[in-house]
Amino acid sequence: MEIVIRIRRKTENEKHLDYEIGIMMAQNNVEIRDRQPLSNARLGILVLLGAETMLFSGLIGTFLVFRVGNVTWPPPSHIGIELPRVVTGINTALLLLSGYTMFQAWRAIQKDRVKQLRNWLLITGVLGLLFLGVQGSEWVQLIRNGLTLQSGVYGGIFYVLIGCHAVHVLSAVIWVFIVFGMAMAGRFSASRYTGVDTCTIYWIFVVALWPILYVLVYLS
Amino acid sequence: MHDNEHTEHHHEESFIRKYIFSLDHKTIGKQFLIYGLIMFFVGGGLALLFRWQLAYPDQPLPIIGASQQYLDEGEVVTGADRMWERIYDSDKEEWLEVSMPSGVITPEFYNMLFTMHATIMVFFVVVPILVGAFGNFLIPLMIGTRDMAFPILNMLSFWLAVLAAIVMAIGFFVPGGHAAAGWTGYAPLSADPQWTGVEWGQNLWAISLLIQGFSSLVGSINYITTIINMRAPGMTFFRMPLVIWSLFIVAILLLLAFPVLSSALALLIFDRLAGTTFFSATAEGGGDPLLWQHLFWFFGHPEVYILILPGMGIASELIPVFSRKPIFGYRSMVYAMIAIAFLGWIVWGHHMFQSGMRPGMGNFFMTTTMLIAVPSAIKTFNWLGTMFRGSIRFTTPMLHGIAFVSMFVIGGLSGIYMANTPVDIYIHDTYYIVAHIHYVVFGGSLFAIFGGIIFWFPKMYGRYMNDALSKIHFWLTFIAFNCTFFPMHILGVGGHLRRIANPQQYEYLQVFEGMNIFITMSAFTLGFAQLILVFNYFWSMYKGKVAEQNPWHVNTLEWEAPTPVPHGNFGQIPTVYRGPYEYSVPGEESDWIPQAQPEHAPATSGD
Ligand code: HEM
Ligand SMILES: [Cu+2]
């Protein structure tokens, strides 16, 4: 007698059993799968940063085309307008500092120090707001001095590129305050801190981008 | 369908949650498919309008155009005459009166028609269907998981695409008409309303594409994360079906390419609305129209590969299944796609040979462009190698797969001609380019889409599409497609420019009148043939022959799931033991071995 084992076509009953097991596993969040080096959330945010990098590459590329294409920069029509290098330099330091404080927040929650997390988040958010405040007052000054969006490509790309970064800082600040609120509500612990994690990655990106823009736009 | 009853029992969902704001990747995929098919008819309709104008310049359109008597003597004869009479009598400036008085297409309206035809076909038909529909439907099923990594973002991606379509649609009805600067939106035409007379149309065009960019961004984050993180146990990267590889690579391309277009669109909007001069070379401190071309094509060339790679992926599924042979050179297929995606970033200048460029740069772009032909040829030979001595089953999906390969070869070859700077100087901006585009995008991507729809329809709806209708659709499409687009090569070599409203104005183009008429008649046939497909689609959803779980005997995981696929896809997540193309393995009794079949399956002995 031969034993015939059919692997491919399961009986209705077997399929049904499989199905029951599957639903049970799904309901209990049990899933067999290969090890993931990065969580979905982390991977997702890193992928997003890829797109952000290309967005800024487009704008920085545009800046470079104008910068390299003009013999004098600012172009002759705008001579006399000085970008506030020193104040912005200090502002740059401020933003870099916020990168450090955000990193500390991230370290704190890994060690389950919720109170420290809150403090560092608050400091980070306030530093971000300060950065925006200083930049805003600079813009007001520049517009008074006659550098506007319509001042040829010099003014145009200045406001668009720096503005695009500012919008990113603003959204990052909002995000930090949301995470701060969640921290106040006690939503994080050393084993559960995805919200802090993704926000930190985003914040570091926005901070790291700034020195590049500062050197290109203000110093070159 | 025991399983199915079961699902309904476990997940009670309202109609809205289930069919409209669904989080299920399969429903979102189908939504994208229907969205794309609807837009396909909008885009096709526009094409038929301007094809009429090219064959019969300045003559009233059939059916809605006024009669000759009415035009000559003002005598109302037909129903259409009455309509026009009413339109002229009313005090309001009616839309039709401006764009096509008495049914005669004005040159301005003609510009809008071809601009919007291409914009809709590229951004609202081919990408949503290939990436949105097939990507959503296939990725979780084929890698063996329950859904996308971020289902809510997935839903967002679809509804953003709907919003983009609505904004784009509004553009048709604003004063000044819709965008008319070509789908490539070249500055200064697009940057300054004084050249085209288009005001809000062009703004809405840019805003809509920005929204579509967000939709793609969200979608690609989802695809990449899902494919990297959520593969079933045993589903290594090199066991993934090629269509998943293609979607993975395309997601990366979309992710990195679209933001560059977004930056250009943002600058364009600033130029139009905020008085900047990024793309206008005004005397004092102004910008550079060429900058637009660089930004656009830096995005645009990767974009054309976004349009073709999933098509290649689909063909790579259809051909082995219906040749009952493993794909020839699986790894080389993957590496070829990666090479194409990589080279795609450094060839954009081949669209700008005529725009003014240092000859050295021209040589660089010529060489890199020709290099792309190498991986493309590898893929083509692999498909042929797969079919070679296979036991080919000429099912309708397979016919589409073969059509894909052969049309892609023609389009790819014309591409190589155009990549040669000296040749391109002659044929740039002629109908030769139009022929090339359509051989790769219609002959390539769309045949793959049709084949894919028919192939996966049984999994989507649990029924077959009607085969007789599918066959009629295929042959009509195939013949009409070639009759429409092949002669365009000849027009192009004859110097027939693209984007001109009335070729009869030019003496040297008058010889082409007959050919233009032939093309237009073929185009109408092609358009009407697509009605068969759509009728078949919706009819078969309800009335088609019921399909079994794995009607084509395919190895990949989507066919392990019950049909119709329940919420959550699989009972137990399958484990993968082998690659996706083990067909006709020597020594095996069956000519297919599913990926989920355990490694050392005892051979079944004859019973
Ligand atoms: C072997 C591969 C290919 C080569 C060498 C190639 C080469 C070229 C060249 C040189 C041009 C510019 C011609 C001109 O404007 O003067 C062009 C235009 C174009 N190609 Fe390709 N191509 C290839 C494949 C593809 C594929 C696969 C697609 C899309 C699925 C595609 C879509 C387009 C489109 C849409 C345009 C015209 C854009 C426009 O000006 O409106 N090409 N191609
Ligand atoms: Cu190209």
Beta percentage of chain A is under 5%
Sheet/helix structural class of chain A: mainly alpha
Order of helices and strands of chain B: HHHHHHHHHHHHHHHHHHH
* Greatest chain-chain contact: A-B, 56 and 66 residues
Which fold name fills CATH's third level, the topology of chain B? Cytochrome C Oxidase, Chain A
Roughly how many Å apart are the termini of chain B? 28 Å
Q: Could you say what the CATH architecture of chain B is?
A: Up-down Bundle
What is the CATH homology-level superfamily of the largest domain in chain A? Cytochrome c oxidase, subunit III, four-helix bundle
Strand content of chain B: under 5%
CATH class membership of the largest domain in chain A? Mainly Alpha
CATH architecture of the largest domain in chain A: Up-down Bundle
In DSSP terms (H or I, runs of 4 or more residues), the helix count of chain B works out at 19
> How many distinct beta strands of chain A?
0
Task: Give me the CATH fold name of the largest domain in chain A.
Answer: Four Helix Bundle (Hemerythrin (Met), subunit A)
Overall average pLDDT of chain B: 92
Q: Which regions of chain B are unreliable across 5 or more consecutive residues at pLDDT < 50?
A: 1-10, 603-607
Helix content of chain B: 55-70%
Which geometry of chain B do the CA atoms define? globular
Q: How far apart, in Å, are the first and last alpha carbons of chain A?
A: 87 Å
H/E topology pattern of chain A: HHHHHH
Shape of chain A: elongated
Question: Can you walk me through this structure?
Answer:
The complex is a heterodimer of chains A (220) and B (607). By secondary structure, chain A is an all-alpha fold. Chain A has two domains: 7-36; 40-219, Four Helix Bundle (Hemerythrin (Met), subunit A), CATH 1.20.120.80. Helix content of chain A is 74%, strand content 0%. Chain A is built from six helices and no strands. Chain A has helices at 12-27, 40-69, 85-110, 114-144, 152-184, 194-219. In chain A, helix 4 (114-144) packs antiparallel against helix 5. The model of chain A is unreliable at 1-9 (pLDDT under 50). Chain B is built from 19 helices and no strands. Chain B has helices spanning 2-10, 15-20, 25-55, 68-73, 79-89, 95-99, 107-143, 151-170, 193-196, 200-229, 242-273, 289-323, 330-343, 359-387, 396-419, 421-427, 431-461, 467-493, 513-543. The radius of gyration of chain B is 25 Å and the shape is globular. Chain B has 607 residues and is an all-alpha fold. Residues 1-10 and 603-607 of chain B have low confidence and may be disordered. In chain B, helix 3 (25-55) runs antiparallel to helix 7 and helix 7 (107-143) packs parallel to helix 17 (431-461). Chain B has a single domain, classed as Cytochrome c oxidase-like, subunit I domain (Cytochrome C Oxidase, Chain A). Chain B starts with a helix and ends in a 64-residue tail after the last helix. The longest helix of chain B has 37 residues, at 107-143. At the A-B interface, helix 1, helix 2 and helix 5 of A face helix 1, helix 10, helix 11 and helix 12 of B. Bound molecules: protoporphyrin IX containing FE and copper (II) ion (CU). Protoporphyrin IX containing FE is lined by residues 184, 304, 307-308, 350-351, 369, 372-373, 376, 412, 415-416, 418-419, 424, 428, 433, 436-437, 440-441, 444-445 of chain B.
